[in-house]
Amino acid sequence: MLQLERGSASMAKQIELLDASQRKLLGHGLSSCTSEELQETESLLVRSLSLIRGKKLTSRKKWPKLQAQLWTNEIKHLKEKERLLLEENARLIEKLPAQEKGFVPYRSQIGQASDIDVETQLFIGLPEMRCS
Q1: Phi, psi angles (nearest 5°) of residue 34
Q2: Phi, psi (5° rounding) for residue 69?
Q3: Angle at alpha carbon of residue 30, lines to 27 and 33, rounded to 5°
Q4: Burial class (CB in 10 A: 0-12, 13-18, 19+), 85
């Protein structure tokens, strides 16, 4: 029982020291600190800041790899979706009546010559001179 009391007292003292250290790191109660304690706190903050910056730099170096992996996964997902849609399209074409099977989907028309004439406002030649 005596050991537990000593352990409890030791833990309570450690908690007090950690609280005091935390207050110093947050800038509270620095007026009572000696110049040596202030220098010690400053060096601790500088070391902590350099560790944080190092971790940030490491995570930034990993970001392009992570981003590439995300895009690769997205491409795989879209290719699988395309495959499923093409299969569904083929299945639906099979269900069409015989007279409608001659219909050519838009996708296969790309790149083929067209016999459709289109009127536009395009004028080839010198622009007209306008006087106001």
Answers
A1: -80, 165
A2: -65, -40
A3: 145
A4: exposed
Q: Which portions of the chain are predicted below pLDDT 50? A: 108-111
> What does the pLDDT read at residue 110?
46
Q: What predicted TM-score, i.e. pTM, was given to this entire model? A: 0.38
What's the angle, vertex CA 127, arms to CA 126 and CA 131, rounded to 5? Answer: 135
User: Quick one: pLDDT at residue 65?
Assistant: 80
Return d(Cα 74, Cα 72) in angstroms, integer.
Answer: 5
What is the distance between the alpha carbons of residues 45 and 25, in angstroms, rounded to a whole number? Answer: 7
Parse the chain into domains and list their residue ranges: 8-94
